[in-house]
Amino acid sequence: MRVVRLLLCYVLLEDYCSNVGAAITSDIVHQDFSSEQNTATLLDNNVPSFATAIGNVTVASGREAILSCTIRSLGKYKVAWLRKDDMMVLSMGTKTLTNSHKFSLSLENMKPKTNLTTGRNEDEATWKLHIKTLKEQDRGCYMCQVNTKPMLNQVGCVDVLVAPDILTSGTSESEVIVKEGENATLECKASGRPPPTVSWKKEKNDFLLRKNRDQFTKVQTWAGERLELIRVDRKQMGAYLCIAKNDVPPGVSKRVYLRVHFSPTAKVKDELVRSPLGTDVSLICEIEASPRTINVWQRGKQLVSISSDDRFVSNETISEKEEWKTTIELKIKQLKVEDLDEYKCRATSVIGVAEASLRLYQIEGVTQATRATSTSGRRYNGGNSLWRTTPKLAYSRTSTPTLQRSTVAFTHERGKIFTTTTPHSRIPLTKDHNAFKHNEIFDASVSTIVYSNFIIITVALLVVLF
């Protein structure tokens, strides 16, 4: 401070030097030119005066603040700018007395103006203090001072608006891990001027808050620095955003990921899977776990999901909306007899192990039986008409045991009787491409059956008609 005073003595007049100490130690209110006593003295002595008040300015951090001090009839006197908090001299006349490039001075509007009170022309000039790249510590009051006796001064204050910032202290880490069923608290502390508002939202969609023991309610945003989750469920897992805003853009946010750990579970889509040989078959297993699990497929004690046999292909698909869900698929190409067995999907994590099993069966191909059919009918038309159709016969061996016997069935419909005959599957068949064309090969083997069926049909007709 002594150095500053010596510098002032060197630059300014002797009167300024004698008064600067008093200006520094006295109260600002008593030195304000607006007081009635000072105003009268100044007018009587025809000394400089302030044309307007400096006023206060509010500027966002990082921008420039300008304080204007307009003085009439400065004459031989000097103007200085000081920082009121520590009375640091920033400028003297047109020179700045600080090495900081933050402060600079400009002089504008030097022009004569008629004083309506005295009728004399007076010079008027505006001394502007520029404070560049404002920071929060630049907030405060600044004094414009003229080295009159008594000294003239007035004060203007700068308020610095600061964009919000999320503090490290008191804010949750980027990842919060809890066990399912426990309580979790997400915290977010922010600073700024004016004080910012803090809210929470989920990154991708609405988040769930427990309404009661078994029910949840969907919430878009939650206002407050603390987000408390009671008896956390796996459905609440995901990324949450802490957002801080005030009047100074831009807003700021922090991502906090909530991980809910629980033991793995495994469930197969079908416990019994059937497929014909020679086809591709897929085995599906659904895993729910957090943290992630190591998933394998087993047939007995053999790991088929990492088998060297390229007929076995294993795939995993993670759900986009429910990240704790994983679907694992084992695809078996060209199913063989040795593949028919019990399979297990097994999920292993640091918390526990889960498995589910299914059995793979073969579907036997069923051939539709082609039965040898003999149809005949009799239509009653006044007792004078009797007609008969020629039997049409065909043979094949069936794959179903219940159809491997010769049977005769009767059907009565609208005055007609029909019969169908299934031959015994053990009757030898002669492979002859012309068999159906000539009907000679079948006469010997079928004649006995046709004759016996004819007798049965005749008896049936007599019973039904008479």
From TrEMBL:
GO cellular component: neuron projection; plasma membrane
Keywords, in A-Z order: Cell membrane, Disulfide bond, Glycoprotein, Immunoglobulin domain, Membrane, Repeat, Signal, Transmembrane, Transmembrane helix
Domain of life assignment: Eukaryota
Domain Ig-like, chain residue ranges per copy: 48-147, 164-253, 264-361
Protein source organism: Fopius arisanus
Localization in the cell: Cell membrane
Signal listed as a keyword: yes
InterPro entries according to UniProt: Ig-like_dom, Ig-like_dom_sf, Ig-like_fold, Ig_I-set, Ig_sub, Ig_sub2, Ig_V-set, Neural/epithelial_adhesion
Membrane-crossing segments per the record: 444-465
Leader sequence segment: 1-22
Protein's name according to its UniProt entry: Lac_7 protein
